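Interim report, section 4.2 (structural modelling).
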Amino acid sequence: MATISKELANVPALQLAREGAELFEMVSALYPICRSITGKGLRESLRQLQNHIGLSLHEVPTGTQVFDWTVPREWNIRDAYIKDSRGTRVVDFQKNNLHVLNYSLPVKQKMLLSELRKHLFTLPETPDWIPYRTTYYKENWGFCLSQRQLDSRADGEYDVCIDSTLEPGNLTYGEFRIQGANNDEVLISCHSCHPSLCNDNLSGMTVATKLAQQLSAMQLRYSYRFVWIPGTIGAITWLALNESVLPRIKHGLVLSCIGDPGRFNYKKSRRGNAEIDRVVEHVLRHTEDDFVVSDFSPYGYDERQYCSPGINLPVGCFMRTPNGKYPQYHTSADDLSFVKPEALAGSLDRLLRIVLTLEQNRLYVNQNPKCEPQLGRRGLYRTMGGTSGNKLEASLLWVLNLADGKHSLLDIAERSGLDFSELDQAAQALLKCDLLRPLD
Amino acid sequence: MATISKELANVPALQLAREGAELFEMVSALYPICRSITGKGLRESLRQLQNHIGLSLHEVPTGTQVFDWTVPREWNIRDAYIKDSRGTRVVDFQKNNLHVLNYSLPVKQKMLLSELRKHLFTLPETPDWIPYRTTYYKENWGFCLSQRQLDSRADGEYDVCIDSTLEPGNLTYGEFRIQGANNDEVLISCHSCHPSLCNDNLSGMTVATKLAQQLSAMQLRYSYRFVWIPGTIGAITWLALNESVLPRIKHGLVLSCIGDPGRFNYKKSRRGNAEIDRVVEHVLRHTEDDFVVSDFSPYGYDERQYCSPGINLPVGCFMRTPNGKYPQYHTSADDLSFVKPEALAGSLDRLLRIVLTLEQNRLYVNQNPKCEPQLGRRGLYRTMGGTSGNKLEASLLWVLNLADGKHSLLDIAERSGLDFSELDQAAQALLKCDLLRPLD
Amino acid sequence: MATISKELANVPALQLAREGAELFEMVSALYPICRSITGKGLRESLRQLQNHIGLSLHEVPTGTQVFDWTVPREWNIRDAYIKDSRGTRVVDFQKNNLHVLNYSLPVKQKMLLSELRKHLFTLPETPDWIPYRTTYYKENWGFCLSQRQLDSRADGEYDVCIDSTLEPGNLTYGEFRIQGANNDEVLISCHSCHPSLCNDNLSGMTVATKLAQQLSAMQLRYSYRFVWIPGTIGAITWLALNESVLPRIKHGLVLSCIGDPGRFNYKKSRRGNAEIDRVVEHVLRHTEDDFVVSDFSPYGYDERQYCSPGINLPVGCFMRTPNGKYPQYHTSADDLSFVKPEALAGSLDRLLRIVLTLEQNRLYVNQNPKCEPQLGRRGLYRTMGGTSGNKLEASLLWVLNLADGKHSLLDIAERSGLDFSELDQAAQALLKCDLLRPLD
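Predicted structure of the assembly:
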């Protein structure tokens, strides 16, 4: 079984291209499904992921109390439309499932456009796009359509139908765990409740799946837990049902909006200087020309729940262009043309590097702490004096100097400005000649 | 009785204008009086303030030992002049009390201008202005006059008279205390010893009086203590006689030079990160386009004494243009034309906001700390999903996220960048539905 | 015996010029000697320094184990050359001792140029300069020459001779200790192993000597220990043999490259905020228009050993242009034309100021901590009120305000922005009138 470090050492460009294509294909297959926070669309989407990894589906019954919330009734929908007087579907759920206000109650009646209007939602500023709207916790029904669709409607009577059900059932979530050398866990979480939207969050769902698949084939120090959950209520449900797991979670990431071509944006955990925060920043600093690291704020994705004061896990949010910062956000324009294979593959690559850094971030102790050891006779130092040293020598000297059992390899990377992977190579070389000992 | 928060919520512009006019009238009434660190002018000034609030006058006898100092003899003056050979008063105390070197010994004699010169003080660079000079602790006498006055004097004999007394008496200071819900105190201090100078410090004396008047009508958590004292010796005297009060002083401000139209300057306490330092900075950040916050330095006003190492109270100095930073400083040009009603009223307004923030800065504990509570069913959250939240939602989420009993509302304001008053509104809403509990 | 503070108060420009000339003369005398990490050249150089101060020479036998290293055999050389077929010395050790690869094994044979080439070292980019190269820990031999010398050589046979010995002997180092009022020590270290190179490090060797000479004539609080040692192996040897001394070393500096006309560069100790780090930065801030302070890194000079994790002394590296940052570095162009008398004297001057600051950096306690003491009746304050204070008053007030037994004089200098020497003058004045007491 290959170690993760060898695995990642030389990812060929070709492999990246292949992974990007596979991820895009997964996104494409999931795209048409009408997901919600409960129901068959969510369940079917998770089952598709089972083609790639052996994730297990969990069903939590309607009415289950989860902290301050209650698991809602299960919503399912077969069809929805608005027909004009000639019987033509002028708004059609079959064409785009965003057309229905998600969690709409069933309705079947004839209405004048003037009556219907308060149930119609558009985006006047981007008149060709359909908005994405939900009504999970307030009983309501409605349709979302483009402004142009609405503008082209004449007054008169329309046949309005939403063939949905809202009945006791279950909330579904997916979970996949990889057992590592120890029981400390890394949590990877992605919301899986959005209907036909690609970046938000088929990108997160599929990259998490691929990441789980790749990590399954590696020797790992940490155990890894992946969850695919409906936003907010799913995270709350999972946390409420898994409180005993939480003390073992040492690091975590929420994945969201990682398929667009924008630069990476990492939102730090509530703690602000957790190891995961520092690892992500280090990796991006050494792979990206441009990226953003921002402080925690209590809105966004499920880091809201993971970082609530009574939970307070070291979980940050890994994104490309963040929610609300791209015009296509929560509209029909977040479609297959908006996400790019190379962006998906790049996100996967950075996540693997982040995992690699977490795995390799150890405390070491210099076994010859008084003065430098004589590296030359161990073949680790140039023999010709008076010349300049190379990068490996610098890495060796930094590791030896700070490996006092108090500075992790990441601390050394941050202080030296060197890349973590170079320092890890140096540490491996020093371990081989017994000049270093791992502390933990 | 109105709470301070309701009181301040909507200060109409008209009220600000009225307050500015009243403050300017108070300054105007005090302007002609010849104050000093002791004597009738100081006493008379404090009595005028009794027309507005029930401050009490304290008299400390000459010779009282106050730490390293001794209360000096009381100085009083009736008249002073220099007459030319024709009997014309060419320098006249009755025209401007700055003409006499403050604390001058009595003198009555004829002198040649050449002999007189070493007792004359001018400002050659601003030749129309009379300097303000004192000789509190060295026996001396003298006159201050404009350079032009001096230049116009011919040689010859002059009749010199200072009709003053320096005799055992008292040092006077004023004090006013408002009892709040608890005995912890906020100290507001202003020096009251300067003769006909407006910004330095009739502005501080009058704004303090108005502030005391307004706070008297409110329900307050803290108790408030106002002192009107002669500079340096007055602060030292008050501190020496009130050592038992000091442990109760939790916050404090010295008010000085707050009537000119310049931007606000806040000089932090010696501690540098005291709550008062952070509160003042927060208020100015959210009310001003331009302001200055500077570190403590051991010169300036009575913060020198309050922040001496053996006292070390959390007392900062609230100013507009600081001492020495405006050309009119310590000259006859610091007159009624230099201070502005709207500047006085603006200073009062900011001080009320500072007090409000101190009053409302509490530690709260989120009663539902595990994940977010369901705000929607409490009417505190939009029901339509997929849309963006508003400012109140952001405030609610920030308060819930950081209300862990360790972050004060001010901490939350600083970390979120939101205005304190918005966060307080959110906290009040959360208190109402029992999602929050005050810790202290 | 003069105190150091009086000594340094007014260094006349003439004295600086004289010291510069003396230092340059010392450098010139040492320049021709072929030093190495062992041998007669090193020994002879240290004996020359004995003309100036009574340093003692220590001899450590070949084979002595010093931590991870072993003291090598002693290397000595009498002559070395390459003769062409006409018997002309085309490369001649007698002309420049850099021509021989330092620590070369003896060789005497005829060789074709084609065979000889792998033993020849040049600098193609600076074709007139001879490189400085060593082979301390790998048995080898070679010649260094200018690229032009090499280019002018025709093919053919050459007579190659290195008349050297590598035999059991000793490693030599010099040491000089000044006993101060207490046993806490300041360590000054300079490497002394480089052959004909001036800035690196005859500048350090000679300035250290002059500094030792001047400190010997002063009353000092600390004891001072100077070491002249071969680089790396010398520092390791000294540390291994003097472990019992290390706990007494409170501050230290490595001196290197301090004779060139460049700006000062100080590399901080591994601790990063040691008192020596702050003192050097303070002195440079108040004497230089331009200087650099950089963080510790584990390559450079013997700070590598002093700051290894098991030693971790507060030792920084005081330089002008650092190693590798000037083109003449480790070449024959680091000669007598590269170092300047005024640069040497300026370095000595800054080091004296650094020592002065270390000596005078004390904790004081204000004996009148409650409010300011009345400085006026002690003659330390202007008597005319209303005017501005002078710099001494500011210094007095800062010292009184922060002399609470927790802020050193250096802390006060850093916080106030005032020069340390002004604050020390203020402290001395306050000590005289019993307003201050030294804590340590």
